[in-house]
């Protein structure tokens, strides 16, 4: 076993990367990429760590092990960083001068990867384990994940081992789906017990009563959202009154379990080939994202669905009644042949989300339980204009202002892209004689243009019925936009 040595990183292999200007390279690697400078042997030789691994950044010729010929050409050396927020980091690297060698793409062996070249050479690659997928319910988007939120798992030099593909465990039987609520019970026990001990000992209570007993779903959530006993205890203790206020609402969220199970059974009856996540987990967190998928199942953060009565409308306001809808919506995504990524066209994004919403509405009463009747109000009144714009922008690799946008500058309610995708799905489904075949076609679609054409939308659209007669006035739209830009009262 290796002895600990303070002048060497605690890792058995330490690759050296050669940059013409080591200090400049270190500045780039530690601000743009998630490296930390660990030790400075000299100006031209520095140790950087990332997770449980380390590299040496040095100058050619500066040391006996650094022959000047080491730097044969830009890209002669490379490294891989395993991270979770690949798209955000890639954007940051590009903004900081990195040249794109390969755009981010999902690979069948279970990784999302991209390649870039440092402004002074050395290829870098980000690899993201596809085990986790942040859901795009419209109010918890991957783009909001902090670029600091990285899993530091390892690093290799040049050679990159492929990670086994890990995909969500699924079951064809809705009765086999396990809805796991035990973490919520544990959370409230930790909440109550921590009040009985001095502040400095409360972290231990959250660790012992909540994290040590974690379900697989809570473990995945904690890794993906970077929630630890320390960060959760700090947040909850700072917002103790707010958590006490939302407590009954969190419990209402958990009470949706039988509604989810019923909705899953209805979905099975409607489309027997559907696959369900093996687990649906409810967890409680520090108000950081509502919904995510891992290979263990769908994970719903109950705190994000718990809005007390009287909460003003905001982009993030979601009631307990929305929970079953979210579970079905996510289940549809799991069954879609074509997954969206940052390079999907607007049309694919619109179809993906709208189809998930539409099929969810076939098994759950819609849109009464939903918070976005404003989309229907606005959409029905302005459908011709919206459809014409969608046709113009269908091939663009954009999502704004259509979706994942809290305050569209068009004056629209947020996420009109979901709504118009719903309308396309509705048109397709309504004109299909064989409904089961229609559902299959909607789930396996890969040619989104052909699908749009087959739907007949907007020419052959079904008549539009707004949900409830709440007219949108210029003043209420302005008020909603102001509110959309405000975070929830509980803070970040
Ligand atoms: Zn979605």
Give the overall silhouette: globular
Poorly predicted regions are 64-72, 137-166, 468-474, 476-492
Head-to-tail CA distance between termini: 44 Å
How would you sum up the major sheet?
5 strands, mixed
Helix/strand-derived category reads alpha/beta
Rg result: 25 Å
What molecules are bound to this protein?
Answer: zinc ion
Q: DSSP helix count?
A: 17
Approximately how much helix is present in the residues? 25-40%
Oligomer: single chain
What is the total tally of β strands?
16
How many discrete structural domains?
3
Q: Quick check: average pLDDT?
A: 78
Instruction: Kindly estimate the percentage of residues that lie in beta strands according to DSSP.
Output: 15-25%
**Order of strands, widest sheet:** 6-7-8-5-10
Could you give a quick summary of the protein structure above?
With 492 residues, the chain is α/β, with parallel strands linked by helices. It has helices at residues 22-31, 86-95, 182-194, 202-211, 216-225, 229-238, 240-254, 257-270, 302-305, 323-335, 346-363, 373-381, 383-393, 416-431, 435-444, 448-455, 474-484; strands spanning 16-18, 36-42, 45-50, 53-58, 78-83, 99-107, 111-117, 123-129, 133-134, 155-157, 170-171, 178-180, 276-277, 279-283, 291-294, 297-301.
